[in-house]
Amino acid sequence: MLLQEEQHIVHWLTQYGVLTKTQVIRLLKDKPPQTAEKIIRGLKRELMIHEIAGGYYLGVDPMCQPDQRIILAVWVLLQFADQLEPMAHYPATYPSQLFFLKENMGYEIVVLYDGEQHLARLLQPQEELRYIFVLPRISMAQELVLPSVPCLFATVDYNGQEVPVVRFYSEGGQQDAAV
Q1: Cβ distance 96 to 109 under 8 Å?
Q2: Nearest to residue 75, comparing CAs of 131, 32, 13, 19?
Q3: Which parts of the chain register pLDDT below 70?
Q4: Its pTM surpasses 0.85
Q5: What are the structural domains, with CATH classification, of the chain?
């Protein structure tokens, strides 16, 4: 029988495929990093999870490849981790990557690359749903046809670091400190 935290890790990696080790540690927000590392080591020893790309990524299948859209979406999700239950986020329907619940409101994270602005038209907005568009550059927001619900924008900048800086912007293009 797996411990609750072990179940969470296996569940996240099953639903998202591959995550960075750092993301898994941060998703275990109630555990100190050393404890999270110990839990991960135990799961690896039991062959429940595997190292991918030399241990930078973790997955339940050693042959899985990271989906960079999911990786970016999880970095954005982690900005809300303190306000979320461990199991209150899920894979979303294309073109969105992730769905999560925060204060009885649904949020979808949509990662768009240059030239994919048209994908925003595929979204089907609902009254209790908000979108967070993750863009390579904030100026791309002006090129989107937005759904008729409130939207936020985010950029994820690695700047040579393992943990990126996530910046949020409102629909007006202003950097939004209160998300």
Answers
A1: yes
A2: 19
A3: 172-174, 176-179
A4: yes
A5: 1-66 (1.10.10.10), 67-179 (3.40.1350)
